[in-house]
Amino acid sequence: MNSQEIRQRFLKFFQEQGHKAVPSSSLVPTDPSVLLTTAGMQQFKPYFVGQKDPLADFGSKNTVSVQKSFRTSDIDEVGDETHLTFFEMLGNFSFGGYFKKEAIHYGYEFITKEMGLTIDYVSVFEGDSEVPADTESEEIWRSLGITKIERFGRKDNFWGPTGAEGPCGPTTEIYVNGVEVWNIVFNEYYMKPDKTLEPLKQKGVDTGMGLDRLAVMVQGKKNVFETDLLEPILKILPESMDSRHKRIIADHLRASVFLLADGVMPSNKDRGYILRRLLRRAFTYEHIYKFSPQTGESLIIEVIKKYGDFYPELQNQKNNIIDIYFGEWQGFKSALERGLKVLEKENSIDAEKAFNFYETYGLPYDIIKEIAGVKAESLTLEGFDEEFKKHQEISRAGAEKKFGGHGMVEGDLTALDAAEMKVKTGLHTVTHLLNAALHKVLGEEVSQRGSDITAERTRFDFVFNRKLTDEEIKKVEDLVNEAISANYPVKIETMPLEDAKKSGALYFYKGNFPEMVKVYSFGPSADSGSPFSREICGGPHVSSTGEIVGKFRIIKEESSSAGIRRIRATVE
């Protein structure tokens, strides 16, 4: 039974019991108390506390879902046979529709009859001074012929809220082959921010069963990486590669695909920082094993192929996901190579040194900890985070003093500091030269459809109906490099927008231009009206092309969407 069959059987089973199937919510939750969606019940929290009416929204007091989930607490553990960052949670929920008897019966029926598995034993809450023992659940299990019942305390059999406060209650858990596969929560209480409990007016059921773990049992595998959910992804990597490293790459890229599809962008804060950590850890092993970036792209395509039918947002965002992956890879590659060389020379790494490596080379904590090994024995995540907070406070104070809290902004560009602005300014001019070169090589059907400039590369989208040939790509590269070597001066003119368009200046058709615009010209005949490049723009630019240090190179040329090509390029 493959994973798709398991999903469908689960949904069908509960639909036949009167549950409404509800699509997975985004990994980016609406609940501000949590960073990412960690469980199936999060989208249903308003129904458990009576803020929303399930009958009005679902036509039923009972729902079923397969929920995308992500837990940051397991990032450092990934690489063994059990831990994952991204996973799917199968769950059935009731908001006053049924309670313990029905929930336990459903769990028993699905595991033993639909999945054909044998229940080893179950566990129930043993009770404490605040919450009584769950003897009712124990009696229900015994009525079903399950006599091996364990009793555990708060740590194992009481489910707390996913945020600072929320519904909670005692749980009963189902074990197969010695492994917990299903946790059934009976929401009887509401936990306040001070951790005190008050009875809920409406009792509810919230269950969660990890698809990866269930697939291990159903498919008779040894661990989650042998199931059909992850094995096809792992097969793309060389057999000779260390199994732990293979698992890290497979898990992290799968998780990254889902985060990107839900709109999370790599950054240095919050969920964007989590995504960047995942990508950079995968990049590190790709570097160590000398993979090309296309290997990672193949894994991403396999993830989308495997999950795209059930989660169509992956297919819809395919090009964007791959584009961001390559952008992050290119930005990290050169810094990684330099950073690892310096790291090898260190005798020991403490929190301060680790943060310096992060700040200088972009190496995050887990990569330093992994690569440095015994040199970083004293390094802890808490110490690293403390250094990170110190830096944020210093940077914030400096930015407010120098820029009034807004960073550097010049024309169309933004940057953290003067050094980054200088790099981006050069790449901005290079983008103009690229646009002009494309027109010269491919003809006037080329039309800009967007651009994006970082400190590492430029990205340029344009209308064209086919893939560029190798010869065309080389011609474009040669023209841009010739323009750089020629040290063409810039000419800046201010004129009415319509006059600028009539002059033959290139422009982005969706640009929001004022009535008076600036036209930037680069070329041997900038004053005579026939320069190499002439374009409407808000600036800034170099004063002459010779200020651009390095050789222009097209990293990748590909389809962005129907009729739109995308070029990623850099100056090295």
Notes on the structure:
- There is one protein chain.
- With 572 residues, the protein is α+β, with helices and mostly antiparallel strands.
- The protein has four domains: 3-226, BirA Bifunctional Protein, domain 2 (2-Layer Sandwich), CATH 3.30.930; 230-345; 347-406, no CATH class; 418-571, Threonyl-trna Synthetase, Chain A, domain 2 (Threonyl-tRNA Synthetase, Chain A, domain 2, 2-Layer Sandwich), CATH 3.30.980.
- Helix content is 42%, strand content 22%.
- The strands form four sheets. Strands 1, 2, 3, 4, 5, 6, 7, 8 and 9 form a nine-stranded mixed beta sheet that branches. The protein has a four-stranded antiparallel beta sheet with strand order 12-13-18-17, sandwiched between helices.
- Residues 398-406 have low confidence and may be disordered.
